[in-house]
Amino acid sequence: MLRRNVLKVAAGAVAAAMLLTGAAAAQDVIKIGASAPKTGPLAGGAEVTHWPALHLWVHDVNERGGIDVGGKKMKVELTEYDDRTSGEEAIKNYQRLATVDKVDFVVAPYSTGLNIAAAPIIAQYGYPQLGATSVGDGFEKLAAQWPSSFWLLGSSTAFAEDLAGVLVKLRDAGAIGNKVAVVNVADAFGIELMNAGKPALTAAGFEIVYETSYPIDQQDFAPIIQAAQAAKPDAFVAFSYPPDTFGLTEQAKIADLKVGAFYVGVATAFPAYAAANGAAAEGVLGAGAVNPEAPGMPEWRARHKEVTGMEADYWASAMTYASLQILEQAITRAGSLDKAAVLAEIKKAPFDTILGAMDLSSNVNPKFWTVGQWQGGVYYGVAARGFDDIKEPIAKKGWN
Amino acid sequence: MTIIITGLLLGGTYALVAVGLTLQYGVARIMNLANGENLVFACFVAMWLFTGFAISPILGILLVVPVAFVINWAIYAFALRPLVKRAKTRGQLEVDSILSTFGLMFIFQGIMLLTFGGQVFKYSYLADPVTIFGTNYGLNRVVAFLAAVVITGALWLFLYRTRYGTAIRAVAVDPVSASLVAIDVPKASAFAFALGGALTAASGVLLSSFYAFNASLGVTFTMKALIVVIMGGVGDVRGAVIAALLLGLAETAVASLIDPGLTIAATYALFILVLLFRPQGLFGRRTT
Amino acid sequence: MSALTHKEWRAVAVSAALLGVAALLPVFDQGFVLSLSLNIVMYMVLCTAWTLFSGPTHYISLATAAFFGIGTYAVALGIGTLPFPLLVLIGAGGAALLAAVVGLATLRLSGVYFVIFTLGLAELMRQVVTWLQTQFGSALGLYVLTDFREMHIYWMLLGVGALVYLVGFLINRSRLGFAMRIIGNDETVARHVGVDTARAKVILFTVSGAFIGAVGAILAPRYSYVTSPAAFNPMISFQVVIMALLGGTNRLWGPLLGVIPFTILFDQISAYFPNHTSLAIGIAFMAIVYLLPRGVLGVWEDIVRLRGRVRIAPAGEKART
């Protein structure tokens, strides 16, 4: 027993010595840690939106010779973990990134739920968290609790109000009546939007004729569409996640759901959505958007495809990339890898990103896209906060 | 009406899975907890055949079933047979077979995760509307249901109209007496186990044409099949079919009328009730 | 109850000393080693509690995740309104209650049905809790914010660990433990000699459930954000079964022999080969069935017996003459 203690003391001393020499040796790379789904229900979404944008950024930075830190160019080295779409795994991964890999900065996870789950642990280690894929209300409260957390993709109230606004435009144009069917996926994103969506729709004078939630691993969408159809809605709204967005659309097509507006959530903005549904995608509304014709955007999309081999989505891919641009510029402005100094810079000045000038001084980004629509094979923004290059929405005319 | 038809269409496919499991547990006396993985594996193969070689799932069954038969026979012969020989008591065999089929379950799952990744997969086959009583249903569901009816019918003819089928039923009732009347019990067990696996694989192929699936879905199906088997009475093919249709109806009704989030909860609740009040099955006789 | 023998005193003293050494760990490391040790202690308690019931009865319970989740949710729901130690007690009590109800309902079923039932139970709990949260809550998870650091959780778990060993030790020495050993050997015999088998099994299942619930409660602050898929994660149930059987369930300290190597191995696998975790679990199950039917403990006992026989044999012969 005594021997074991002696050994431990010795091991401690060795560890301390290593720490000292490690600090003395000059560092020439910036270690960045990332944790996001590679398996589990959200893997499909993360493989389109999160990982390619992150890889593109690492590629771009290293091609330029690295990030300028106090006049010295430092390349970026990425460590990746899979969180299996589980909050528990995400927390373990960030613990490991901080204590074992000892990374300089971390990339926020993918999705609203995982960002909320990981916020306390990321804050505990003092890393800035730039949540580029979380939509929700109450982010002001989270930001007050963890001042190192930033929320970029918008509030669910804005998403819901703007969706109601788009539906009002369609109603005024005579495309739809007053009856709406609303369903949501039982995950943070779906619940947040449902809670904000119902009052927003009711306030805009719509009548909710059918509503339900379904679990994140739902496999059969026929009962949902059939039940909605039985309520004879004029518009169908689903706050859905990637697999269900596809499943609901396919069932709507089979059942020939006759609505003048069809809205589905995450993944509507994926190029794969148009590929899977062909002509039936025309007129489908979806959560979030970008202006694919904004200055710099076509070139960025082309580079995204060239470097990662995948087409960027029409929504959060750009925000994910923009969040990393902000991190990069903040590091350069701080001139060091000190987490507190970089955090202070993120709060200070506007940044120049692929989405134009961005300001995170209040921790919650005020400028984001809320509703988009497939029009002639391209997904355009039809509603936004802080952007005014939007298109007018069109009615959904049949499924062929 | 819509609910009844959708429920029956789903129940038809469940019936195949459950008949597969009831053969394995009723005749071979192995509670195969890897049965669901068998099904999911068939889903992946069907998708691969369809997207890679444009072989339709209906033709795919003809390819998948013999392969599944051979694989399941091999599993029984090499992995489970030694346990049957080693076991001194029925209880010992039960514990061993549960643990080893759990092992198989995780190994299959792991292989599928490594090969295909964890995302949810779905492919479009015959996703066209068919109108029945004025409502549209997916053609793929109707085709899958009809195929399930044909396969179950063929199985019924085999079990009740042929000599070997009768022998297999005899083993299910009493292995000791069966061996007295010159039935090769080990061979019949291996055959039933392989046949059960093949049926499950067939249902996987059919299911994949209209159901989204991922590598870790197997357990859900194993549970559903178990519920159906226990409800129908272990080893009772007819009971399994009726119970499967009931489960399909119950799930669809809960999803449409109450909440889609409670379908699995509803099946488990049903299962618990059956276990507590009729552990011998809905149609089984009470034994001591 | 008889007084402790000399050998038993020695066992108690050695255990207490080892516990003391383990408690000093946070002094030397508060990073990765502590984190790993915390996992080891957690599984040590879970597996030992599991073995209390499943060791003698040979019933394979997969309800661990259900009990664990109840403990976790007791803390998640009550934190901020009630003191933490009380919440741990509530968690343990809730899990014990569920175990008692389940035990009364199902312990007369055969082994296979019991396994399936307990697996379904955790799944049912997860679904219902998720549904309740989406219907009546605004989010899918609950924050559990405390001032506890990993070392505090580690110390609390060590405390529960000491308690579970103590309880197990006392049960083994009691009439209940004796009854369980008879049931384990042959239940029919046990019933004939007047053992109330159902009562004995329910009591043990309840005690085991209470400890698992307490661990779930103590672990809640570690993950600061509690969701039902994490709290009722079926992997916990499977890992506990594997580690306990791998170690061996004939003795109280048997599971520990499985917990230490498997936790370390699994940590490495899940960090660096996340897609291989299922495969690793599957192989472990197969190894238990085909290579180590009585666990590491069984192999150890065989070795001891072989060496012992060589040494003892001459003495035995002398005694006979």
Oligomer: heterotrimer
Q: State the major sheet of chain C.
A: 2 strands, antiparallel
The overall pLDDT of chain C, averaged over residues, is: 82
Determine the strand fraction of chain A and express it as a percent band: 15-25%
Rounded Rg of chain C = 21 Å
The total count of helices of chain C amounts to: 15
According to DSSP, the number of beta strands of chain C is: 2
Helical amount among residues of chain A, as a percent range? 40-55%
What letter string, H or E per element, gives the SSE order of chain A? HEHHEEHEHEHEHEHEHEHEHEHHHEEEE
Percentage of residues in DSSP E strands of chain C: under 5%
Q: Based on helices, strands and strand pairing, what is the structural class of chain C?
A: mainly alpha
Number of strands of chain A: 15
The 3D shape of chain A can be described as elongated
SSE pattern of chain C, N- to C-terminal: HHHHHHEHHHHEHHHHH
Describe this structure in words.
The complex is a heterotrimer of chains A (400), B (288) and C (321). Chain A is α/β, with parallel strands linked by helices. In chain A, 45% of the residues lie in helices and 20% in strands. Chain A has a seven-stranded mixed sheet with strand order 8-7-9-10-11-14-15, with helices on both faces. In chain A, helix 4 (87-99) runs parallel beside helix 5 (112-124). With 288 residues, chain B is an all-alpha fold. Chain B has helices at residues 2-26, 35-53, 57-86, 90-116, 139-161, 163-173, 175-180, 185-208, 218-232, 237-258, 263-277; strands at residues 129-132, 135-138. In chain B, strands 1-2 form a two-stranded antiparallel ribbon. In chain B, strand 1 (129-132) and strand 2 (135-138) form a beta hairpin. Chain B is globular. The termini of chain B are far apart. Chain C is an all-alpha fold and 321 residues long. Helix content of chain C is 79%, strand content 2%.
